Amino acid sequence: MFTGIVEELGHVTAVESLDDACRFRLRGPVVTEGAKHGDSIAVNGVCLTVVEHEGDEFTADVMAETLNRSSLGVLAVGSRVNLERPTAVGARLGGHIVQGHVDGTGEVLERKPSENWEIIKISLPADLSRYVVEKGSITVDGISLTVVDAGPDYFTVSLIPTTLDLTTLGLKQPGDPVNLEVDVIAKYVERMLGDRLSSEGATAK
């Protein structure tokens, strides 16, 4: 489990295309400290498994399913990425509960800078819109953010200078894809209410 609090802005140092997958080598001095084979590291919000670790770099394999459902397929050598290690038991939950399981991708639609923050508008897939509410939580490229405005096919977030400086959202431009993970609690609530309503409907008959 992650919290959506990015630990460092790393970058891709190598990309190896495989038959139905891809192997990335990524550099991140903070997240690789003490890392070992089998550990999990979130890369732009996608939970990946460390295959090899040497110095301040690690490699991770990404299957076709992940490449199809996330924006990792557009990464190239030099691409900047948000990195986060799993949260430790008993640690503060600085953001919100993040699984590292991307639900879909959105696209940066526009940026509106102001003196002390910046508003970013992001497209929202139709099948995810019901989980996104004003002042609710959403994960964008692995960053825990609060929704400012939620529309039927978009949402906006307000970014402080620290987020702009220390994450990929400071670099994204209109047209760029981003990984989205909605609040898992909303999905569980929907499932439980759906089962309950289905049960009540069956009983009424």
UniProtKB/TrEMBL annotation:
One MF term in the entry's GO annotations: riboflavin synthase activity
Residue stretches of each Lumazine-binding repeat: 1-96, 97-193
Domain Lumazine-binding: 1-96, 97-193
EC numbers for this chain: 2.5.1.9
Subunit structure: Homotrimer.
Purpose of the protein: Catalyzes the dismutation of two molecules of 6,7-dimethyl-8-ribityllumazine, resulting in the formation of riboflavin and 5-amino-6-(D-ribitylamino)uracil.
Record-given protein name: Riboflavin synthase
Organism, scientific name: Streptomyces caeruleatus
